[in-house]
Amino acid sequence: MTVNAVPRPGFDAELRAGLAVVGGMFPPTITPELIDFMRVSYASPPMTDLFRQHRIDVTDVVLPGYQGADLTAAVLRPRDAQGPRPTVLYAHSGGLMFGDKFSGLDLVLDWVSELGATVITVDYRLAPEFPDPYPWEDMYAALEWVAAESGNLGVRRDRILVAGASAGGGLAAGIALAARDRGGPRPCGQLLDYPMLDDRLITASTAQFDGIGVWDRVSNQTAWQAMLGDRRGGDDVSPYAAPARAGDLSALPPAFIDVGAAEIFRDEAIDYAGRIWAAGGDAELHVWSGAFHACDIFAPHTSVGRSMIRTRNAWVEKTLAD
User: Residue 248's domain is classified under what CATH number?
Assistant: First the structure.
């Protein structure tokens, strides 16, 4: 394991205690050899009891993905819901290489049970078996399907929010860009939790976290290599795969971006928000002091984790409202 020698912001004391627990399930450094391990370690536990506690009905569906491939997805609705609902299309975390449609989903169940929204979460195909453009094209196909089937799904066509965490946040940003450029369904907002946006690994925060925390520089390199192969870091990278590559961030849906100050995605997330503002767009940016990557998933009980979740949910409620 590489020893981090670059000065970096420290972790919040409460979160630092949680890192020791996280490391057994989610190593700080993920190499290609660990992808199979992560697909087991990061697989979602059974969710049935949690859905029941939140009074959420779950429907399994199959939708057409990129090039017509069958994708499995789950539609979560509040029990006894009636009429068209605001809806969140959700892309899970896992570095584009692992995870499933229920990864990290316990954090968004309040959107269903408390806000009355429908959440649709998708098993997009994973790299390296399915590299660029499969993951983002699958999610874009899901967006088109949700819009086209809005009547059958009970979805308000004018209130479709795209959201995701980590790699899923990058996918949400990518499909918001693709929808703008292709004249596709326009989301009412894009929620980008500590998003994975830039394949170039050139920021100061990327260099600050090596062999420490959750998702370090090598993990990020592994993920982008799986997604882009030899194109990683070069000139021929699609902005829909790596949204930081987009030259134009104008005319996008309102964005919510949050990120930890003590993680590698800090600087690319800040830059993305700044470029949206520079293009005349709307972005709400939160940088959480002492927060490691995805600390709200791994340590939701902490003060920082609770604040992240509360702040995010408030933005979702505002954005999904009339």
Answer: 3.40.50.1820
CA-to-CA distance for 219 and 225, rounded, in angstroms?
Answer: 10
Residue spans of beta strands (DSSP E) within 176-282: 189-193, 255-260
210 found inside a domain:
yes
Residue 77 inside a domain? The answer is: yes
Question: Max Cα separation, the chain?
Answer: 56
What's the structural domain count of the chain?
Answer: 1
Q: Which of 201, 202, 209 lies closest to 6 in space, CA to CA?
A: 209
- Residue 1: the pLDDT is 46
Give the DSSP H/E element, type plus range, for residue 288: strand 283-288
Task: Round to the nearest angstrom and report the end-to-end CA distance of the chain.
Answer: 50
Range of the domain at 245: 14-321
Tens-place pLDDT, residues 115-133:
999 999 999 999 999 999 9
Cβ count near 311 (within 10 Å): 14
